[in-house]
Structures are given as C-alpha cells and as structure tokens.
Amino acid sequence: MFGLGGLSLAQLLRLEAQAGVGRSAKAIINLHLDGGPSQYETIDPKIEAPIEIRGPFGPIETSVPGIRISELMPQVAALADRFVFIRSLVGSDGQHNAFQCQSGFTEKDLSSFGGRPALGSAVAKLLGRPDDPAPAFVDLMQGRGQVRNSARPGFLGPSYRPFRPDISSMFARELEAGMKGELARRGSEHTLSLTLNSQLTRTRLTDRRSLRTELDRVRRELDNSGMMEAMDQFDRQAVGILTSGRLAEALDLTREDAAVLARYTAAGSARGKQSSTSEGTTAPQKLLLARRLIEAGVRVVSVSISDFDTHSDNFPRMQNLVPIVDHALATLTSDLRERGLADDVLIIAWGEFGRTPKVNSSGGRDHWPKLSPCILTGGGLRGGQVIGQTDRLGAEPRSRPVTYKDIFRTLYRHLGIDARQITINDPQGRPQYLLDDGEIPHELGLS
After folding, report:
1. pTM confidence score
2. Are residues 286 and 326 in the same domain?
C-alpha cells in the first residue's frame, strides 16, 4: 500500500514506472445510457416470461453459440465474441444520475468532505501532468441536469474536475422543463472554452499567468491544505492545453473524413418513436469524438446517449433508440480494432439502474434498482461471454451478482492502478483508498 498525498513528482513518476503505467496508451470510454436502460430490450430478453413482461421483441442468436440478446442489437450480436454481457449488475442506489457509474460510490459517501471523486478525476490526480497536451479526463455527458454534474472531483477539489466542453451545438438533446431548471440552479460550470480569445495572445497569456503566480505566492505559502499548489498545477495544464490546440482539434469533427462521419451515423429509420429527449441518428458520432480524444492523449472520456427513462411508450421508444446504441458500440469496437487500439481502450456501456418487469398503464417500464445491464468490450478482456443469470422474469439475479465497485476495480486495473492498494488523502489528511471494496470478475481474464 502507498499513499499519494505527500509524494513528490519525482517519487510519483518512479512509482508509475514501477507499476507499468507512466504514459501508457491505456484509456477508458465510459458510455452512460442516460435514464436507466431496460435489460429486456438490450442484453437479457426473456422469451419464457409472460408477454406483458417480455414485450414484443424477441431474442436473436449472436456470433457466439448459446448467447442471445435482443433483436434490437443485431450489429453487436454479430460481434459478440468481442463483448462481455453482464446481466447481473447489482447495488444501484436508485439515484437518477450518473454518479455511481462515474465513481462506484453513492453520492452520500464522504459527502461531508466533498464526496468521492469520479474515476477520471482520480486518474487525473494519479497520472495527469502539467505538461500534458490533453487533459486526463474529458466529460461529454449531455443527459438530464443531474447527469451533467455527475463527473465530479469530489474531495480532490476543483483542480481535478473534468474538462467539460459544450457540445450542445453538435448534438441537440432538448431538456425537459424540469431538467432545464435543475441545470440552471447548478450554474454554468458545465462548459469550458477550448480556444484562446482573439485578443489574448500566447505572450499575454504567459505574462498574465506570471503576474497571477507572483500575487498568489504569499497566499500559497500560507495555505496548509495544498489547494493553492493544486490550482497552480491546474492553471499550468489549462494553459498548455489551450495553447497546444490538440483538444480543440480532437473535438472538431469537420476535420474528420466524410466517410468516417457516415460510418458513425446510424441508419435513418421510421421504426418506433423518438421522444423529445432522445438522441437522433448522429449520436454515434459522440463515440467518434471519444475516440479522437483518446488519440489526442485523454485517458478517460465520459459520454452519454439519451433517453432510456421510458415511463411511457417503452417499446416504440426502445425500437427507435436501442438500434442507435447498437450501431454506436459496433462501429466504435470495429474502428478501434482496425486502428490497433482494441486492447488499449476499454469501453463500458451502462446506466443508473434497469427497468421494471411490469409494464405500467402508460406502456412504460419504471425504475428498477435491483438489477442493471452492463456491456464491456476492448481492453484485452476475454470477450464472447455472459456473466450472471437472472430469474425467469428478469427481475433479480439468479447467479453471479456483480457490483459497481467490481466494475471499477476492473476499470482501474486496465489503467495499471490497483484501486484497493492506492490511497489519496482527503481534505483532513486522512488516506482514502480509491475503492474500499470490489473484486475483478475472474471471467474477464485480468486478475
């Protein structure tokens, strides 16, 4: 075990080298299926359940004998040998946000100290450096107001918040009135300019930063919490990112080949029903952005596709939305393999909970924290398998429950970090393990 609160940069670099991490190309794309995806219409169709539970969509065979998933995901089915389907994810705290899918913890954990940090923020603390041309953590999530604020640095403080560019002009995702109010109450810090003001040259930027550093020197010397030093590091990195331009270029899809953009666009279809809060056929291009960011040096990218909160019209809405996710996952998986990045990039797709077996009077499925679906691919995982089984109604796990912290132990491990051994000091100076629980599922072939 070793803590990181009092390490010098030289010591940290030595530890990273010993752990085999350093400046490796390992990265994570965390896809949040905003609203809570239905297990029935994705990876756990229940043909044996009554029609009022299983719905109108049947299972289809995949490329792996014995594995069947929803007929709404034919492209993923064709690549099933590359995917891990976890049908028994348990432990959701039922909150309608992405916080647990960002950290493994509930929002209440260590809330008096600011809460637990998102994985990306912890990675920025451990592996990010002031001279990096791209931030360690970029958050592209667009979902409901709560989701937009889920990727938080927690007790690590603002220096390790994600870079959160505003992509609303690229991907329209209209918010419901209540969500708009919620987002407004949270303030405007969910956006970040990625280009220099035309009146602010690199020279002026450097001069102003030098002046600020001098003015802050006395305060920094008096600061016992380390926050000023951390803010200086964030400031240095922010300047480097703005002046290098790599991040802005990665987010500029006009630089991408038209054929690639077309590849990341789902086929237009009149099937089903697109709700006012659901994504359209260009949503897979969010994963193209994520891939471009990873190639620019980002370690963790969070992205979302909405809207799985189907309290009404579940079946026509899933008929419209699930094929978009199917196309996005299959395209990204194939693209990364073609680029030689399949083992370097681990992709996870999941949500805050599953959906109820019972269909309500509005034809919808409600929140179901007892069980959630989860899909993994890439990262050198042993694909072509299902982990966990559910009961006949798809309501509860029958075998092999997997927790959110199990998944995060896996994600950290992919990045070369043993989350049960490494600690980071909280604001009181007490060491906190990155994870206080969780085991890597042995089926994945990583432990």
Report:
1. 0.85
2. yes
Whether residues 130 and 277 fall in one domain: yes
Angle at 372 (CA atoms; ends 325, 357), nearest 5 degrees: 100
Place of tokens 């604001």: 427
Q: What is the CA radius of gyration of the chain?
A: 22
**Model confidence band, residue 350 (pLDDT cutoffs 50, 70, 90):** very high
Per-residue pLDDT at 268: 76
Find the domain containing 418 and state its range. Answer: 2-192+249-444
Same domain, yes or no, for 138 and 73?
yes
Q: Domain count of the chain?
A: 2
Lowest mean pLDDT among 80-89, 167-176, 298-307: 167-176
Displacement of CA 224 from its chain's centroid (Å): 33
Residues 298 and 416 in one domain: yes
Residues 52 and 106 occupy one common structural domain: yes
The sign of the torsion formed by the CA atoms of 165, 171, 172, 176 equals negative
Residues 433, 324 share a domain: yes
Instruction: Note whether 293 and 392 are same-domain residues.
Output: yes
| CB burial of residue 267 (10 Å; 0-12, 13-18, 19+) | exposed
Nearest of 135, 181, 179, 183 to residue 161 by alpha carbon: 135
pLDDT of 189 above 90: no
Which strands, in side-by-side order, build the sheet including 2-3?
Answer: 2-3, 422-425, 431-433
Among left, alpha and beta (phi > 0; psi -120 to 50; other), residue 414 is: alpha
